[in-house]
């Protein structure tokens, strides 16, 4: 409910603004230690990204309530927004978008970490778990850039709005694709943010979709093996349907205006 999200926002905002926040029998305030605000800003940003990595990855519709609170905190506390972006880029380089190249002298474990895999005690993420986490973070990012906290005091421009989504899409279509990953993140991003980009950029957006369908998807196909077809098939079908119907549907779970009355 909208009222519940407001409670969550207020509690985080109170903590960041220096007020005493109570949780059970404990209280906390950033005024209690000279470095407390630095620590709290970092942990809040880390928590938002972790929710994308875990909760959104498991339940796609969770992206929207998490994103709208993150957007509001970003607007009110730009420092936290910078840290959200930095944490997101570190954990999911495809949110830049950036595809790290292997450099001589780099260990395979470190390279896998650069790509976003979790590596612990020489045990590496399974491909499915890795893609699921990347998907969750991309979906959270795509939701953040289109939602603005409706109760902001200033209600200025979105601190990281749709123009960044447009830039992400343009840049994503200008880098060499990576098997499995590229098709996954493009599908997730367009399914969450495609409708908003279509409404904002109209003819220019459809030109970008033509480029994706006619030029970029064939490039992904060239590097995709028979065991990696799942994400590519989803992307191709999604783009094909959107091009035929000349529209991109609203994503499931989006927050309508009536949500804020709940």
From TrEMBL:
It holds the Pfam family GLE1. It comes from Ceyx cyanopectus. The keyword Transport applies. It is found in: Cytoplasm; Nucleus, Nuclear pore complex. GO terms for molecular function: inositol hexakisphosphate binding; phospholipid binding; translation initiation factor binding. GO terms for biological process: poly(A)+ mRNA export from nucleus; protein transport. InterPro entries: GLE1 (IPR012476), GLE1-like_sf (IPR038506). Keywords: Coiled coil, Cytoplasm, mRNA transport, Nuclear pore complex, Nucleus, Protein transport, Translocation, Transport. This is mRNA export factor GLE1. Its main location: cytoplasm. GO terms for cellular component: cytoplasm; nuclear pore cytoplasmic filaments. The lineage of its organism: Eukaryota, Metazoa, Chordata, Craniata, Vertebrata. The keyword Coiled coil applies.
């Amino acid at each position: 409910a909208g009222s519940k999200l407001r409670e969550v926002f207020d509690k985080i905002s109170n903590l960041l603004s220096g007020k005493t926040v109570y949780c059970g029998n404990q209280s906390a305030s950033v005024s209690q230690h000279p470095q407390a605000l630095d620590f709290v800003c970092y942990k809040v940003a880390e928590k938002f990204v972790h929710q994308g990595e875990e909760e959104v990855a498991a339940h796609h519709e969770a992206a929207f309530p998490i994103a709208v609170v993150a957007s509001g905190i970003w607007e009110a506390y730009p420092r936290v927004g910078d840290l959200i972006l930095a944490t997101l880029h570190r954990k999911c380089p495809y949110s830049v978008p950036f595809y790290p190249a292997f450099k001589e002298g780099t260990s395979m474990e470190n390279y896998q970490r650069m790509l976003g895999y979790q590596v612990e005690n020489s045990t590496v993420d399974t491909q499915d778990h890795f893609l699921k986490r990347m998907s969750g973070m991309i979906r959270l990012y795509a939701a953040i850039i289109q939602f603005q906290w409706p109760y902001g005091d200033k209600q200025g421009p979105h601190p990281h709005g749709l123009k960044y989504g447009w830039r992400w899409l343009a840049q994503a279509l200008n880098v060499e694709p990576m098997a499995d990953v590229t098709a996954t993140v493009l599908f997730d991003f367009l399914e969450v943010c495609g409708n908003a980009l279509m409404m904002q950029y109209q003819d220019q957006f459809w030109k970008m979709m033509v480029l994706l369908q006619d030029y970029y998807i064939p490039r992904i196909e060239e590097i995709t093996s028979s065991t990696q077809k799942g994400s590519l098939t989803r992307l191709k079908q999604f783009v094909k349907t959107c091009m035929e119907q000349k529209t991109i549907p609203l994503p499931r779970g989006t927050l309508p205006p009536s949500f804020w009355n709940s």
